[in-house]
Amino acid sequence: MSTTDWEAKYQAQDMPWDKGEASPGLVDFLAAQPQLPHGSVLVPGCGLGHDVRAWAAAGFGATGFDVAPSAVRLAHERTAGTGLAAKFQLGDFLGGSPAQPFDWVFEHTLFCAIDPARREDYVQAARRWLRPGGNYLAVNYLIPDKEGPPFGTTREELLERFSPHFELLQEWVPRSYPNRTGLELMFWWRKR
Ligand SMILES: C[S@@+](CC[C@H](N)C(=O)[O-])C[C@H]1O[C@@H](n2cnc3c(N)ncnc32)[C@H](O)[C@@H]1O
Fold first, then answer.
1. pLDDT one-digit tens code per residue, 56-72
2. CB within 8 A of 177, min separation 6: which ones?
3. CB 133, CB 103: distance < 8 Å
4. What is the pTM of this model?
5. Which of 54, 77, 138, 147 fits 22 for a cystine, CB–CB 3.0-4.6 Å?
């Protein structure tokens, strides 16, 4: 588990990452790919669940997963009454494994949130939670910061870590929240 006390952050309402809406890069991806088969998707580190609801609204069987009980509670509250079939579960993405592996795993500000010493654990978790041939879609935050969270990374590090286990299908600069413009890169990988 991350050494950051995420639950304390939610209780203190210290959530600068939350922009009140889904990742613009994800919204554009789903709009551009209406033909994708509507499989299951896991959103680890889902926070308040904006991205989970975006996947559910696009027809996917979406599950949000978070280590902070308050995040899961708030995500449930934000979803109630929307008519969306989004699910939320409490748990540790790095330590857990799925009863049924997912067709998709969607990354958005979890990789940069965890302790960099756990990045190999993260790669192995992404493999474990996905079925063979499953899709790993990532909105990565490319900042130089060594003190975090968020902890910085580079395109080179991401390619080095993921390429041995995933085939890169596509890579692009997405539309971003205003304060992240030019700092995000999206990768669409397929599990080998
Ligand atoms: C920077 S926040 C991002 C939240 C959301 N993805 C967003 O962009 O709004 C990181 C989230 O990951 C969760 N988290 C951290 N470590 C985790 C772990 N090992 N397993 C599951 N969730 C984790 C935190 O509780 C927090 O909600």
1. 999 999 999 999 999 99
2. 19, 23, 24
3. no
4. 0.97
5. 54
Q: How far is the CA of 45 from the centre of ligand 1 (A)?
A: 3
Mutate to test the pocket of ligand 1, among 41, 110, 121 (most ligand atoms within 8 A of CB): 110
Nearest CA to ligand 1 atom 4: 47
CA distance linking residue 76 with residue 86, whole number of Å: 9
Whole-angstrom CA distances from 5 to 10, 18, 69, 141, 149 are: 9, 16, 11, 21, 11
User: Quick one: which atom of ligand 1 is closest to the CA of 114?
Assistant: 16
Cα–Cα distance for residue pair 62/79, rounded to 1 Å: 12
pLDDT at 142: 97
> Which protein residues are within 6 Å of ligand 1, measured from CB?
1-2, 6, 17-18, 44-47, 65-68, 71, 92-94, 108-110, 113-114
